[in-house]
Amino acid sequence: MIKEAPDSPGVYLMRDGAGQVLYVGKAVSLRKRLLSYTRIDPAARSKTAMMLSRVAKVDTMLTRTEKEALILEASLIKQHRPRYNVILRDDKSYPHLKVTVQEEWPRLLMTRRVANDGARYFGPYSSPAAMWETLRLLNSLFPLRRCKSRKFTPGQRACLNHQMGRCPGPCIGAIGPEQYRERVERVLAILEGRKRELTRDLENRMQEAAAALRFEEAAGLRDQIRALNQTLEKQVVLSRERADIDVFGLVRRQGQVAAALLLVREGALADKREFPLDEPMGTDDEILAELLRRFYEPVGRLIPRRILLPLEPEGAVALAEWLSEKRGGPVQLTVPRRGDKKTLVGMAGDNAEQVLAAQEQQQAGWRRLGEAIRRALKLEAIPERIECLDISNLGGKEAVGSLVSFREGEKEGSRYRRFHIRELDTPDDYAMMREVLRRHLRRSSAERTLPDLLVVDGGKGQLGVAQAVLDELELTAPELVSIAKDREDAGERLFRPGRKNPLTLASHSPVLLFFMRLRDEAHRYGITFHRRLRGKKQLASQLEQIPGVGPTRKQVLLKNLGSLKAVAAASQAELAAVPGIGPELAAVIHHHLHPGEQPAAGNDSPGQA
User: Fold this and answer.
1) pLDDT tens, 373-406?
2) 583 and 520 both lie in a single domain
């Protein structure tokens, strides 16, 4: 089939026996790229060989150009999230700053979710402390409104933030649309790294205000300039060009790859990103190309005019065209050979070396702990991936199963799972665990993703349930262990199949402490989900108990406001704007959901921030 693949640009999808997409790739020549995989030794202990052993089918999709293949590949990776493609763990949970420029009166806020909603996003910030410092600076220099109201109503009172000077007060007409937009532009200028440009503009405005004898306005501008200059003094200047540049470094050592990115804004180092890549597939130029595509693909990502690289990425011309389209202007991919730019790439490479060194140190620590676990549990090999299952319920109500996964001693959040208990609604922990284990192990077996070791929260009874499910499904893996508190001495005990007594481990044993950490994480994950379900059920019940709100109006509220949480957070004016609700019923709903609050003047709640 590979020999029949066309010698033209396109995208290929490698699938396993269950049809799951394992890897998505692009190529200028699909035939040459697919033939290259036949030269890989199946017995090699590499990630590529491991993936190829699972491939049952390869689908191809033809495109007219390499650039079209690149765009299609990015779309398919987002759709299928293949296990073997490069995953940028760097920015999964880092915060962003969001400016809601699509709103009439934009707001500045922190978010961890980037959406295609018309807002401007800045980040991710690798240091939350740096992000909060930027937010505090902006709120002190150019404060924007903080309330969530979509519309301002006549007669509305100012909130406490306005009275404290933290909000310009657009809700009461204290600032006009033109002045407010000017303030928003200044916020955007700082977030885009144009601090020096903004400082020059403020200096000109200060001189104009002083010449016109508007001394109070001039003093305010002077204070803003001082604050900006103080932040500029703290920055490390790396380039004499005062330009915006992204600088990548890439290091490979013994199959391990790490990358680092220096973000230079107006010639000064603004931030740094680190990317530990877990045995990525392909050559260095292929890895770098995929890294660039994955990093710049998200909506709102700032793309500078120049990107410095340690080597030329695969498909550099098509990649530059794609980046230029996303930026709305030319983008240069440059591999510097000498001078300051070469030094910058070397600095990024040094940072990547540090990432790799930290990764190797972490792996060495895990090898010691993994070996201790292997000896304590008498396993044949060190368990690389360990999962832990916990059942949470309150009298059998809203029962959920929570499963967490650790790989080489670290959290593997992409494999965390939550389960609704479907088969019963009574407090029977054994039956609930049996149901969840059957569903999870069946699926994991079909996908060939069974863990090396499964930990269950509970004593010998729960361990027996887990062993029975393995026997029922005719599975020989994973290995099992259970952890339970000793009622007599309040300590922790570990149980293994075929062993009558618990394992004897000291209370300070690293092995016992690791399993306690694993169990506590599963418990935390389950309790969070359990509480959310209870809260949703209680709020839904509250809505249905409000006079005048039946199932139909409840659905109208959810459809227009988005969620139960949004209904509870909505003001009277927002509730009244929902079709079929009106001011009177909105007041009843708001009072029912917020019984401790005083009714607002007019039809809105009093100045909430």
Assistant:
1) 999 999 999 999 999 998 876 554 567 888 999 9
2) no
* Same-domain pairing of 220 and 103: yes
What is the DSSP-derived secondary structure letter of residue 413? G
Phi then psi for 194, rounded to 5 degrees?
A: -95, 50
Decide: helix, strand or coil at residue 321.
Answer: helix
Cα 537 from Cα 601, distance rounded (Å): 31
Q: Which helix (H) or strand (E) holds 479?
A: strand 479-485
* C-alpha distances in Å from residue 139, one per residue of 107, 130, 132, 183, 384: 11, 14, 10, 11, 46
- Residue 497: both structure tokens together: 């199949």
**Contacts of residue 386, Cβ cutoff 8 Å, sequence gap at least 6:** 405, 406, 407, 451, 452, 453, 454, 455, 518
Task: Specify the CATH number for the domain of residue 552.
Answer: 1.10.150.20
Tokens of 460: 């010998």
Give per-residue pLDDT as tens, 513-524: 999 999 989 888
The CATH number linked to 404 is: 3.30.420.340
Q: Are residues 107 and 141 in the same domain?
A: yes
User: In terms of residue numbers, what domain contains 560?
Assistant: 546-593
Alpha carbon distance 366, 514 (integer Å): 11
Identity at 302, one-letter amino acid code: L
Give the chain's domain count.
5
Q: Which of 8, 64, 66 is nearest to 315 (CA)?
A: 66
Does residue 608 have a pLDDT over 50?
Answer: no
User: Rounded to an integer, what distance in angstroms lies between the CA atom of residue 37 and that of residue 2?
Assistant: 10
- Please state, rounded to an integer, the average pLDDT across all residues of the chain: 79
**Residue type for 465, please?**
V
**Per-residue model confidence (pLDDT) at position 93:** 55
Q: What are phi and psi of 58, to 5 degrees?
A: -125, 120
Q: Tokens for 570?
A: 């909505």
For 328-337, write each residue's pLDDT tens digit.
Answer: 899 999 999 9
- The residue among 198 and 28 whose pLDDT is bigger is 28
Which of 202, 220, 237 terminates a domain? The answer is: 237
| DSSP character at residue 503 | B
